[in-house]
């Protein structure tokens, strides 16, 4: 069925189709103190966010045992919160727009991207459900026993499968294989060669598909559905993934408090989240809303050729192809043609807005953050840096601020950019990104 876009604001549609960067303020955003969130008919709340964190906590001793890089953090997979005054200056963002901070998920251990939160959570939840069912652990047991032979024999009977452009496959493949599952990652043609190689080196079966990301997911789902011992992680409809991401909010809440950063009605918190299908940013935005209520303003950032979440908000069910875009971008973590309906449902009343960014800007910002802050990130992870300028420098962004009575609060705002990946990008590939970015930023 062809989608009818005639009811949309015509300038916005024209900008989208011409791949010009836009800011879109969400007209359905609610500033109510509490908003109930229902996804797929199930209400979710702060209790679910805390349950996800408690699951990570139960597994921490096991993870410290399985991954040498987690010994220093006692099995916690977390990232730093960094002030970014030099990057703020490099972006030309005045102090009247607030203070720039970075949530450094590009350095998350084990997976090297934000997918360490959602992907690993879902694998742990599946492993835990099996271990409980077979009586290998109870909730208050020491989960380090899951590194022993009986658990490994049990897990080895099952396959964990996923369809992925790369980073989700990395997180799920690496964790599933470390626990003793058979792991299969279905990848699209545009997935990077080094990601495939890294997975194969860990004993993960990489299945390559010629189509795009959605095609790889569909093929993986079909194959897993036919096998009762196969568990398929469904990026487009997984609540476990979303809740895994949401747990990040609890840690960030502690970090902001520790850094003496206030969040209230006169100190708004803007969070810029690179968006692919929307599960990661929606999970985090949902978690933050449970803690900060209407004082948190999540903005999703998408490539100009792959704004699937914005398209979904404007015309539910439509893809970026329906608008006439190519879904071609160097930001491979964000190259998604169709958004998760689950994430869109959850975000309808919570999301502040969506903005889009050109690939050239991603590379320029990748270069700037290396120069300014010494951080090494991948192109997808640079998406958030254009957010503060789009919010404060576009008519639509300023209209959002006025509508939500934020004009007088901006000097005390926190502008938090979430850098979502980069740790495992090979040095040669990173050098190419940085060189390209330096030429564009000059
Ligand atoms: C997957 C990914 C995202 C976005 O997550 P979604 O759940 O697909 O929206 C952002 N940045 C990077 C680096 C990613 O790999």
TrEMBL record:
Belongs to the serine/threonine dehydratase family. DsdA subfamily. It comes from the Bacteria. Gene3D superfamilies: 3.40.50.1100. Its EC number is 4.3.1.18. It holds the Pfam family PALP. Its cofactor is pyridoxal 5'-phosphate. The keyword Chloroplast does not apply. HAMAP family: D_Ser_dehydrat. It comes from Cupriavidus pauculus. Residues 80-387 form the Tryptophan synthase beta chain-like PALP domain. GO terms for biological process: D-serine catabolic process; isoleucine biosynthetic process. GO terms for molecular function: D-serine ammonia-lyase activity; hydro-lyase activity; pyridoxal phosphate binding. It catalyses: D-serine = pyruvate + NH4(+). Keywords: Lyase, Pyridoxal phosphate. This is Probable D-serine dehydratase. The modification N6-(pyridoxal phosphate)lysine is found at residue 115. The keyword Nucleotide-binding does not apply. NCBIfam families: D_Ser_am_lyase (TIGR02035), PRK02991.1 (NF002823).
